[in-house]
Structures are given as structure tokens and as C-alpha cells.
Amino acid sequence: MIENNICLLTDSYKVTHHYFYPKGTEKIYSYLESRVGAEFNKTIFYGLQYILKKYLEGQVVTQEKIDEADKLISAHIGPDIFNKSGWEYILDEHEGYLPIEIKAVSEGTPVDVSNVLMTVENTDKKSYWLVNYLESLLLQVWYPSTVATLSAEVRKLCNFYLDVTASEKDNLDFMLHDFGYRGATSTESSMLSGSAHLLSFSGTDTIPALTIPENYYNDNDLYGFSVQATEHSVMTSLGPEGELAQILNVIDNAKPGILSMVIDSYNYRKFLKTAGESGSELNDAILKFLETEGNKVVFRPDSGEPVSTTIDCLNILEEGFGSYETPKGYKVFDSNIGLLWGDGLNYHKIRDILFAMKSNGWAAQNIIFGMGGGLHTNVNRDTQRNAFKCSAQLRDGEWHDIYKNPLDSSKKSKTGRFKLIKENDSYKTIPINCDGDDLLQTVFKDGELLVDDKFSQIKNRALKYSNFR
Q1: What is the pLDDT of residues 399-408, one digit of tens each?
Q2: How many CB atoms lie within 10 A of CB 225?
Q3: H/E element holding 456?
Q4: For residue 232, is it within any domain?
Q5: Which of 157, 240, 408, 445 has the fewest beta carbons closer than 10 A?
Q6: Is the confidence at residue 469, as pLDDT, over 80?
């Protein structure tokens, strides 16, 4: 089968809609929003440019694709269901370029929920059916947008506790590290969500995400960085009896820079106490490694209850390596000692850990976090309640407002056609004929990409939000 056949990139039921719309339909106007009830009160819009470039830009309709889709849908649903003539019209009259106009807010923009983020309408009245046919594909922008929002909210949280505990912010860009590749649903999803994380942070182990800025966002700069680190296959190589020998082997062979070591293969308390015990072989090896300027050791417990284990590790490390106080009296290690918690995290657990650290007199700069499943797979379309709905239809030359208003009022949809404006530092959706500068710009029209942002531009928009406390 043909990869990325645009005729098949939809839900089955949408294939039947072209003959269900009212007679005289000329235009369908639909929009995307994050509805009331989202987990976070703003959504950072991101990932549309990737979808447009990968799936919609240029001549995407061919006779081969049409024939393949017709054959498949005839078997899948029934004969004479697939809109073969509609697709062949696009091929013949538009040379396979999609007669669609997409307007959207600039990527990286944090928009208050319950506001329009994107609108879609057809530019050829015979292709009215195409707008919501594309919903299944276009709505997938929910995923990178939600991950971008989550990472930005975590950065705001870290920023807050760094300020509260009078911490240095040298390491803010690396306080949340992406560990999600292995737990992602696919390489494509890890690339897209991993790049969304890079709008707010610079720490990542998801190497495929590093290709997105260059391949889809016109940016050759590198936006993600990592360090040398161990895992349990390394640390348990010599068994419990040989753990110390293997730790010494790791330290002896480590390259200059940051070394992250997992410490819970058997007993994290014993590991940390031995590491900090003056005169022990392990302590001598660590101190020798730290003699080189720029070297740092980060200890990573990888099991246990996140809050209590974090506080326990901080207290044990203080016994061995000491601490000093920030201007507000919070304890902090020397910059070459750190702690990484990367197991079972989500936004709320990170908040709980930072709050507990503050409550126990620890500065936020002592810790960095790693998030895998919580970043890549513990979000869904309902996290930010993303929905794509039709709000207006043009029939026989006259616009008709369309909406849904179910008993669940949180799912009530908007009606009419819209502008997105900014008013008193907040975003507001208003009717298209009202006064105000529209922040929705045409990014795609008739198969052509009209806005082609650099990743750095999008990152700067997101950082303006996540750096504000």
C-alpha cells in the first residue's frame, strides 16, 4: 500500500459524509480549541507545521492513491461509498493540491483555553466535504501541543521554587530531562513529543527528536543535550558482591564532564553512605573525579516513593558531602554534586517533591527530574480537552451558524466564524466581522505552506511564558 495516502488518512465514518451534508452546501468552516476543563489553563500550540509539511503540502493526490482508496473502502465499508469523483476533481482541477485554507495562531503561543487555535475551510465549493475529512489528521496536533504545554508548566513550576529557595538558575534549562523514547508509542511520536519538550528544556535522551528542528522547522541549531550515564545493566554487571568494583570501574573510565549513576541496584542508602564516607575507596574515587574542573556526579535513585526517597537521599548526601545555605537559608550542595529523580513522575509529583524539599529546607537547585512515560504517553487528547468542530456552513450563498449544545455543557461548541484577539494580556475569540487584529494567520492554502517558522522563533514564544512566574 502507498505510504501516507491522503485519501485514507481519516476515520472510516468520515468517508461517508460527502453525501450526508445538506443540498447546496458550498463551504464547511471548522475550528480547533482546548475546551473548558483542561488540566492547564493555557495551551501552547505546536506541531502543525510538521503535520502540514509531512502530510498535506504540495501535490498529495494522485490517481494511484485514489484507486487504492476506492478499492480498500469498497471492501472495508461497501461499494459506491468512497468519494472517488470528489478526489478526482481535486486531482483534475487542482493538480492534486488540496483546496483548503488553514489559519492558526503562531506556534509556541500560550493561548487561554476555550479559544480558537486553528480554523479550516475549503477554497473550492465542490470540495466542502474535505474540511472535516481532514479532522482526524489535523487534530493530531493535540499531542505535541499537550506535551509542549506540560513541559512549559513544569518549567514554570521549577522557576517558582528556584526563586522561593533563592537558588541559582544556571541549571534551569536542564531541570526536566526527556527519558521517553523507549516508552513512546512509535518513533514518530517520540520525535514530535520530544521536540515539543525542547521548547522549554534542553535536556533529552530522545535522540530522534533532535532531527525535527532541522527537517521541519528550518533550524540547524542543536536544541537537546545529554550526559554520560549508567543503567542497571552496567551497575549490576558484577552482581551484589562486585557492586563496589563496578562503580569504581565506571568512575575510572568516565570521560570528563557530568556522570550520572543509578544507585538503587541493591541499596541506595548504602551506596550514598559509602560514597560520602571520608577515606572510603568510593569516596576517594569520586573526589578524584571531581578534581577536574567541570566534572560533576549526579546520583539517581530509581525506585521507591518519590517524595520521601528524594528527601532521604538529600539528607544522606549532606552527611557525606556537606552543604551551604542560599541567601534565604535553604541548603544546597556544591555545584559538582547533584540528585536526579526520574521514576514515575508527572507534573503533580514534581510539584510534591519541590514542595517537600522547600519544607525540609532544601534549595530547588539540588535536583533535576527525568520524565519518560509521564511526558510521552501519560497525556491524551482530553488532557487539554482538544476538540475540532464545525461552526459554520455556507449553503446557497448564505452562511449558517452551526453548533452542538449537549446536556454536558462543557462540550458546547462555538458558533460562527472567528477571530482570535489579545485583550488585556489574555486571548479572546470574537466573531470574524468584529473589530480587532486577528492573531490567526493563514499558514496553508491550496497546497502551499505560507508560514514556515524556525524552531528558535517558536521556542522563544514558549519561553516567554514558561520563564514568567
Answers
A1: 999 999 999 8
A2: 15
A3: helix 455-466
A4: yes
A5: 408
A6: no
What digits encode the pLDDT tens for the residues 92-102? Answer: 999 999 999 99
Tell me how many degrees the CA angle 241-244-248 measures, rounded to the nearest 5.
Answer: 145
The pLDDT tens digits of the residues spanning 36-72 come to: 999 999 999 999 999 999 999 999 999 999 999 999 9
Are 73 and 408 contacting, i.e. CB atoms less than 8 angstroms apart? Answer: no
Count of Cβ atoms closer than 10 Å to residue 412 Cβ: 14
**Is residue 76 domain-resident?**
no
Burial group, residue 64, by CB count within 10 angstroms (0-12, 13-18, 19+): exposed
CA proximity to 178, closest of 455, 467, 375, 456: 375
Cα dihedral 445, 432, 387, 380 in deg (nearest 10): 80
Total domains present in the chain? 1
| CB of 110 closer than 8 Å to CB of 155 | no
Please tell me whether residue 50 adopts helix, strand or coil conformation. Answer: helix
Residue 101 in domain: no
**Under a CB-based contact definition with an 8 Å cutoff, are residues 52 and 439 in contact?**
no
In a domain, 23, yes or no: no
Give the domain extent around 268: 146-376
Nine-digit cell string for 313: 537521599
Whole-angstrom distance, CA of residue 383 vs CA of residue 74: 36
Look at residue 409 and tell me whether its pLDDT is greater than 90. Answer: no
Residue 33 cell numbers, joined? 480549541
Q: What is the three-class DSSP state of 207?
A: helix
Angle at which helix 347-359 crosses helix 142-164, to 10 degrees, equals 0
Cell representation of residue 449: 505552506
Three-state DSSP class for residue 396: coil
Return the SS3 of 40.
coil
For residue 264, pLDDT over 70 is answered with: yes
Tell me what the mean pLDDT of segment 394-415 comes to: 93
Predicted TM-score of the model (pTM) = 0.97
Give the whole-angstrom CA distance, residue 382 versus residue 74. 33
Whether residue 410 is predicted with pLDDT greater than 90 in this model: the reply is: no
Q: Please say whether the beta carbons of 84 and 400 come within 8 A.
A: no
418, 431 Cβ separation under 8 angstroms = yes
- pLDDT at res. 304: 94
At 228, which CATH number? 3.20.20.70
What separation, in Å, do the N-terminal and C-terminal C-alpha atoms of the chain show?
Answer: 51
Nine-digit cell at 112? 487561554
pLDDT at 468 over 80: no
